[in-house]
Amino acid sequence: MRIALVPPLYESVPPKLYGGTERVVYYLTEELVRRGHDVTLFASGDSQTSGRLQAVIPEPLRVNPSAQDPCAFHVLQLGMVYGQAEEFDVIHAHVDFRALPFSRFVRTPTISTNHNRLDSPEAIATSQAYPEAHLTSISDSHRGPLHWANWVATVYNGIPVERFKFSPRPGSYLAFLGRMSPEKGPAEAIAVARRVGMPLRIAAKVNGFEREYFDQVLRPLMDHHLVEFLGELGEKDKTDLLSGAYALLFPANWPEPFGLAMVEAMACGTPVLAYPRGAVPEVVADGVTGYLCRDEEEMAARVADLDRVDRRACREHVLARFSVARMVDGYEEAYRRVLAADRRWCRRVA
Fold first, then answer.
1. How many CB atoms lie under 10 A from the CB of residue 241?
2. 256 near 192, Cβ under 8 Å?
3. Nearest to 313, CA basis, from 250, 244, 267, 281
4. CA distance 200 to 8
5. pLDDT tens digits for 120-138?
6. Is the pLDDT assigned to residue 54 strictly greater than 80?
7. Rounded to two decimals, what is the model's pTM?
8. In this model, does residue 240 exceed pLDDT 50?
9. Res 349 pLDDT > 60
10. Is the pLDDT of residue 175 over 70?
11. Could you tell me if 44 and 166 lie in one domain?
């Protein structure tokens, strides 16, 4: 198949540091190319791909402080993609719902994968305006706010498990990996670490719009001998952090669409303690790869039970459900399904 992949422009593909969506798009691109598909990636010029790269901007938006309106660059990106739509069999967009208005003006079908929460007014309004749009979710729970939409498939995110160092023995510290935002729960993770008296190592991105929360709420909490803030980490350092941890704390305070950090930790053999919000119960096998906890108190209490978790079972869980191969199998099937439906529609209107 001839496939156009459309990632967000905030990070390069793959991202140098933090960037879950761009990382997943990179894994998807490389495996599709390996399987013989003709893939064009519309991304920043410093991106890396085995497919064909069409540079939308020289560098990702996060390193361009002069950029005032990120939406404008995504409109530019989509103009490039849909101006060449006839060159592709399918367009796979990962830019929220921005591609949907463009999709009506071309015959090439679009699949839209939104990696963010779907209960926002803009997500609901956009999807209502384009009810025929082909959507894929990254978890079953992800569909909830748009249960009536035209869902083609649920395809879980996948990672190249072999790149994540497995450690059969637990370390002596807890880990937190994510963004320094209230919905990701860094304050709760700090509270749990202090309750149990274990060191906590935090690897996290601080976005500009989260700076006030970071400075006013989190900095005072991190001024404690048990807490170490590492900032953003590259892939090797991130893997070292996760493989050496006793557990990953994931006290998400929002309807988590997927939670890639949980899968990365389990691939290293590290169990996860998490709140059962959004997709978390679909990702963590309660009692097998970690524990689902109602609150800080239960999460702290469950730390003592982590020695019952088989770290190899954590990795096997990821291999079985969240590998790159499993993810690409799902998207290939979604592409075939949409192309078949498109051909049937063309015959009906001919």
1. 24
2. no
3. 267
4. 31
5. 999 999 999 999 999 999 9
6. yes
7. 0.93
8. yes
9. no
10. yes
11. no
Which amino acid is located at 2 in the chain?
R
| 117 and 9 both lie in a single domain | yes
In one-letter notation, the amino acid at residue 225 is H
Domain that holds residue 309: 161-321
Token pair in block for residue 95: 């830019």
The answer to whether residues 258 and 341 belong to one domain is no
Which residues are CB-neighbours of 145 under 8 A, at least 6 positions away? Answer: 117, 118, 119, 123, 124
Q: Are residues 30 and 114 in the same domain?
A: yes
The answer on 295 and 187 residing in a single domain is: yes
Collapsed DSSP state (helix, strand, coil) of residue 261: helix
**Phi, psi dihedral angles at 273 (to 5 degrees):** -105, 120
Same domain, 170 and 316: yes
CATH at residue 70: 3.40.50.2000
Amino acid at 194: R
Cβ count within 10 A of residue 248:
27
CA nearest neighbour of 7 among 162, 112, 156: 112
Verify that 184 and 81 share a domain, yes or no. Answer: no
